[in-house]
Amino acid sequence: MKKMLLVFTAIVLLVNISCITKSQRIGPKKEIKHEERDLVCKEIRMADSKQHEIVGYLEESTIVFSGNPVPKKICYIMDASLRLAGFFMENGATYHYDSKGNPVKRGDFALENAIRSVLGFQGAFYLQKLEPEPFIDK
């Protein structure tokens, strides 16, 4: 699923930045090679509740495509159950997934409004970096 998402994201990024040349056109047999870097995960928490309830998660990633040395930032937006709800690209393009799992463009937003659009959440929120639990070998 994640590989399909990355391939689709790669296609959208290439179309959005208008850099598809004749040698880079994507056909059914050609796979886009990419490398993910700088993965950062954050919780999306309600700011106006006493419990600071988690309403979702944000996974920020930098992707470098072969043939294009400029890294691209993409943010995957997940709901509180860790279901992938949509994604946001550095140019503001925001997509959510419909009931069949197809990405549908919501519009062009700043990150804060992209999160609201994808999760359907209107309240105040903040992002808190997820720190991994220490590994204890027993």
Please give the order of strands in the largest beta sheet. 6-5-4-3-2-1-7
Report the sheet-strand fraction.
35-45%
Biggest sheet: strands, sense, closure? 7 strands, antiparallel
Helix content: 10-25%
How many structural domains are formed by the residues?
Answer: 1
**Integer-rounded radius of gyration:** 17 Å
Q: What distance separates the N and C termini?
A: 34 Å
Structural class determined from secondary elements: alpha+beta
By DSSP (H or I, 4+ residues per run), the number of helices equals: 2
Order of helices and strands: HEEEEEEHE
Structure, explained:
- By secondary structure, the chain is of the alpha+beta class.
- It has one domain.
- About 15% of the residues lie in helices and about 45% in strands.
- The chain is built from 2 helices and 7 strands, in the order H-E-E-E-E-E-E-H-E.
- It has a 7-stranded antiparallel sheet, covered by helices on one side.
- Mean pLDDT is about 75; it is low at about 1-30.
Q: Notable features of this structure?
A:
single chain; 138 residues; alpha+beta; 2 helices; 17% helix; globular; disordered N terminus
